[in-house]
């Protein structure tokens, strides 16, 4: 795997962990009332999406074979 792809995957993992930590102890109602938490999660999801779009086609194909 290219080093760049490994770095992007790590960015995705860290962003996912961040998103989870932002809401882990919140009830749904509290999350819906908190724009701060919503924006934090949105930012993390955006980081995941941007990183995913930059992963090479070869690494994407390998990942698809792993989950298929």
Q: Could you characterize what this model shows?
A:
Helix 1 (3-23) packs antiparallel against helix 3. The protein is mostly helical and 68 residues long. It is elongated and about 40 Å long. The two termini are 19 Å apart. It has helices spanning 3-23, 28-33, 35-54, 57-67. It has one domain (3-67).
Summarize the helices and strands and which ones pair or pack.
Blueprint: H1 3-23, H2 28-33, H3 35-54, H4 57-67
Helix pairs in contact: 1-3
How much of the residues is beta strand, in percent? under 5%
- Uncertain spans: none
Helix/strand order, N-terminal first: HHHH
Helix run count: 4
When the domains are counted, the total is 1
* Classification by helices and strands: mainly alpha
Q: What is the number of E strands?
A: 0
- Whole-angstrom Rg: 15 Å
Q: Outline, from the CA principal axes?
A: elongated
Mean pLDDT: 96
Euclidean distance between termini CA atoms: 19 Å
User: Main beta sheet, described?
Assistant: none
Helical content band: over 70%
């Amino acid at each position: 795997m290219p080093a760049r792809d490994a770095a992007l995957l790590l960015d995705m993992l860290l962003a996912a962990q961040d998103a989870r930590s932002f809401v882990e102890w919140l009830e749904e109602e509290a999350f819906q009332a908190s724009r701060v938490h919503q924006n934090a999660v949105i930012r993390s999801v955006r980081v995941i999406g941007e990183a995913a779009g930059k992963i090479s086609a070869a690494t994407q194909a390998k990942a698809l074979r792993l989950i298929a």
